[in-house]
Amino acid sequence: MNIVVCVKNVPDSETRIKILSDGVSIDESMIKFDTNPHDEYALEAAAQLKEKLGGEVTAICLGDDNATSTIKRCLACGADNAIHLVAQNSRMADSLVVAQALANEIKNISFDIILCGKQSSDTDSHLVGGLVAQILNIPCISMVNEISVSDKKVAASRDVEGAKEILECSLPCLLTAEKGLNKPRYPSLRDIMKAKKKEIKRKEIMLNQGGIEILSMEYPPPRNEGKIVGEGPEAVSELIKLLKEEAKVL
Amino acid sequence: MDILVFAEQREGKLKKTAYEVVSVGRSLTDESNGKLTAVIVGYNIKNISKELGKFGASNILVADDERLDKFVPSAYSRVVSSIIKNKNPDVVLFPFSSMGKDLMPSVAARLGVSAASDCTKVEISDGEIICHRPVYSGKAVAKVSFSNKPAVISLRPNTFSITEKPVSPNITEVEIELSPNDFLTIIKEIVSAESKRPDLTEADIIVAGGRGIGGSEKFSILEELADLLGAAVGASRSAVDAGWRPQKDQVGQTGKTVSPDLYIACGISGAIQHIAGISSAKYIVAINNDTEAPIFKVADYGIVGDLFEVVPAIIGELKNVP
Ligand SMILES: Cc1cc2nc3c(=O)[nH]c(=O)nc-3n(C[C@H](O)[C@H](O)[C@H](O)COP(=O)(O)OP(=O)(O)OC[C@H]3O[C@@H](n4cnc5c(N)ncnc54)[C@H](O)[C@@H]3O)c2cc1C
After folding, report:
1. At what angle do helices A95-106 and B98-111 cross, to 10 degrees?
2. How far, in Å, from the CA of B239 to the mean position of ligand 1?
3. Average pLDDT in the A225-231 region?
4. Where does CATH 3.40.50.1220 sit in chain B?
5. How are the residues of chain B apportioned to helix, strand and coil, as percentages rounded to the nearest 5?
């Protein structure tokens, strides 16, 4: 079972965003980076499938030099090989362009399953997995929270509005991971040391502009100043009154 | 500007997002003197498609086929993309629902165009379509424009208003071409949720609990309040990771983004990753016994106190209303 897992390096979830004076990008100089949260579930799933069924895991990451930390993490958490598609200023790049670059690279790898996080926490687009699958013309099951592989087939379940679905497809296929799929491991010191010996294949690439342009980046509109209605159950009547008469939501 | 919208139905029922995309499509086409086309895909759905006329869908294309009874992503994507190729609209609107999240990338890749997801505002400026989309987990908003046609866009559920604008629609059934290749993914089983509560992303009111609830059985007081209000029950990541609530109830950066009219946070501290999921709620109420809890900074109304006293008092007050 050969698995490709696509990972992205993103600003840590605690990051405060500062928009630069160009009005379209953010200040990355003070940012701490981390593996995209949903990609951790994809990576863990890849590692577990390999441990069960054998084969190799190749991590592939498109990003600038900061992404090295995420790639090292992949190598310490179950990936055997890593490919770094080095593209500067690619953080908010158009998802189609990113997916084309990933698909272009994955084409050269012999794989049974591609795993991606369902979305990345910077672009929040929820697109790359589905795009890669369609570009490679392979089936895709998204937002999976359970995977079972047998007989060249994958069954996966997911929650949609009001229901749980179980889908099935043949291999090769692409799956996107939802939180809850597994519990991502912490690498041991030994894993980290071993990972240092593994090679990261670096390939410089150029991304074209794509069909979407960011015109501006703004802070979200501030929320209205709130108020403390009171303390304890005595404040409840006043709260209900405000919700009915002021907010008009009850 | 000609606009084509994907009106989602499941089990023969139109989803709320169907009315939302049609309403947005209607107002944009009115503004730009364009033509609006709504597409609905499924089986035995001609009757429900008419309902879209109430919201201004003047042209409705129905893809009605037994093989499309259940949502098979690849088959739906094949059908929708061939309709788009055929109609050549300027703009395509999807909902950012589970179905839309599957369809949009697949359709965009088939068309070879870029797409903008989870938009919270769509406007026409100088004859161009501009979308506002929250990025960095809601910490910034990007305004984007398109250089490819069609502009493929998905709309955040529960965010755009539904406007009635009755027309008598032209309903046309489309020819469907499907091959075995379009069924590489199949649905094995669908298990409907036991709960009759609305889905988090569609609910008008959400009652959510965090670590302060202290156990799965103690969520029953939030469920009681939710049922009185016709609300959904949400949870913080701590409550989910503790095993008190299922993953699908999680609100926040690694859970769901919700946009209810009212979000009642009980025993939730208001971590930045939780706030990421609720910043498009219209009103936030916080009930927390710690005056310093960051949730009070984003709440419209706060009550400082023990939730096990405050929530029952709310239930009592609501029940007392004649
Ligand atoms: C990458 C990443 C992603 C994350 N994604 C999410 C996410 O999607 N959603 C999410 O929620 N979190 C997320 N988190 C976790 C987040 O950082 C917080 O740990 C979490 O939100 C805390 O949950 P909580 O507010 O329930 O618990 P706590 O922070 O422990 O807060 C509990 C609150 O309950 C109050 N309380 C206790 N008892 C009572 C009582 N009897 N009456 C009233 N109040 C009481 C306390 O004063 C406290 O404020 C993420 C973290 C990371 C690192």
Report:
1. 70
2. 8
3. 95
4. 205-320
5. 35, 30, 35
Residue B236 Cα: closest atom of ligand 1: 11
- Which residues in B lie closer than 8 A to residue A148 (C-beta atoms)? none
The residues, any chain, with a CB within 8 Å of residue B2's CB and separated by 6 or more, are B29, B34, B35, B36, B37, B87, B88, B89, B90, B91
Query: Rounded to a whole number, what is the distance in Å from the CA of B63 to chain A's nearest CA?
Result: 22
- Are the beta carbons of B141 and A220 separated by less than 8 Å? yes
Which of these CATH numbers, 3.40.50.620, 3.30.470.30, 3.40.50.720, 1.10.10.250, describes A3-204? 3.40.50.620
Fold classified for B3-183: Rossmann fold (3.40.50)
Domain with CATH 3.40.50.620 in chain B: 3-183
Atom of ligand 1 nearest to the CA of B255: 8
For the full predicted model, state whether its pTM sits above 0.90: yes
Q: Write out pLDDT tens, residues B122-173.
A: 999 999 999 999 999 999 999 999 999 999 999 999 999 999 999 999 999 9
Which helix (H) or strand (E) is B237 found in, with range?
helix B237-241
Structure tokens at B84: 């788009």
Largest interatomic CA distance in chain B: 62
Q: Does A121 touch chain B (CB under 8 A)?
A: yes
Separation CA B121–CA B43 (nearest Å): 32
Q: Is pLDDT above 60 for A159?
A: yes
Residues of chain A contacting B306 with CB distance shorter than 8 Å: 232
Atom of ligand 1 nearest to the CA of B293: 49
User: What whole-number distance in Å separates Cα of residue B235 and Cα of residue B195?
Assistant: 16
Interface confidence (ipTM) of the complex: 0.97
* Minimal CA separation from A103 to chain B, in Å: 12
Q: What does the domain layout of chain A look like in residue ranges?
A: 3-204
The superfamily (CATH) of domain B205-320 is TPP-binding domain (3.40.50.1220)
